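Field notebook, page 307. I keep forgetting to write these up properly, so this time I am using the form the group agreed on. The chain and the ligand, S-adenosylmethionine, are recorded exactly as supplied. Prediction of the bound pose follows.
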Amino acid sequence: MATLRIAEHIAAGISDLEALAGVAGCDAQALHSVLNYLVSKGVFEATGRGQFGLNDAARGLLDPTARIGLDLDGIGGRMAYTWSTLLTYVRTGQPAYQEVFGLPFWEDLDAHPDIAASFDALMGPAGHGTPDPEILVAGDWATVRTVVDVGGGTGALLAEILRVHPTIQGTLVDLPRTVSRSGEIFRAAGVADRVTTIGQSFFDPLPAGADVYVLAKVINDWPDRESTAILRRCAEAASPGGRVVVLGGVAPDDARPGLSVEMVLAGGKQRSVAQFGELARAAGLHVQAAERLPSGRFVVECRPTSP
Ligand SMILES: C[S@@+](CC[C@H](N)C(=O)[O-])C[C@H]1O[C@@H](n2cnc3c(N)ncnc32)[C@H](O)[C@@H]1O
């Protein structure tokens, strides 16, 4: 119903089943069955013979944020249908996204600009809200002049960091299509004049010499080999005086390993601090601190290992 925008059509004044099916481009009988089912579950109201209205639950479908994740024609569908590959994932330990979509996840996004755009929207403020800019274990921003957000999406976290720290300069690194969508986010935060955007792969050399390299919700998307390669690029760029701050995908050693969609989608991993420490070492980093922030997020700070 989210994909067919049925709640929006009802909100616009179309309550008759035939008219709803016409405007949504679907089969009236099938739509009737689904709406009756949802009414029985407390979503939508039957207001008369073949007439439907909104109740509070159905009004939830009008929220654009909810729709990004529920729209089966966008990233919501990619994530939902991915779960049908869970059995292969468990049997093999490898993602089987291509069984459903023909290509591995990142290549599928490359091949479908509309899906890639909805993924960026889901990761950005429209989907995940405004991020908390406090990402340093000791809150020691006074020594930080430059921040590079690696795989920083459309820039929501970097924009917040620069907004609350008016002397810091930032660089956003992500794929070209994604950084191209960052302009409005930096303008809205009033920080556009302190940001450089670079559309490139994080498997290629990163801009060198910054004080902080952020990897937020990035290495949890990748298997060990690729995660180590990304960390190595950060270590090379940060060396000798910078640090690498990792948010997402690392949990305390005593946490129970959970299941997340990134695993099934792209072979991502959740790692304990000990497991992460091994990758960091192989990448030329050592873990300096690993703690839970007041926001509830678990953060790991690393420094380049001295040559
Ligand atoms: C899960 S999102 C996280 C985005 C952002 N850091 C956040 O916290 O919301 C992962 C990001 O990695 C980016 N990405 C994937 N492959 C990449 C590559 N090869 N080079 C650079 N960025 C890449 C995606 O475009 C996406 O923005």
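OBSERVATIONS:
- The mean pLDDT is 96.
- Residues 106, 123, 151-153, 157, 174-175, 178, 201-203, 216-218, 221 surround S-adenosylmethionine (CB under 6 Å).
FOLLOW-UP: compare against the apo run.
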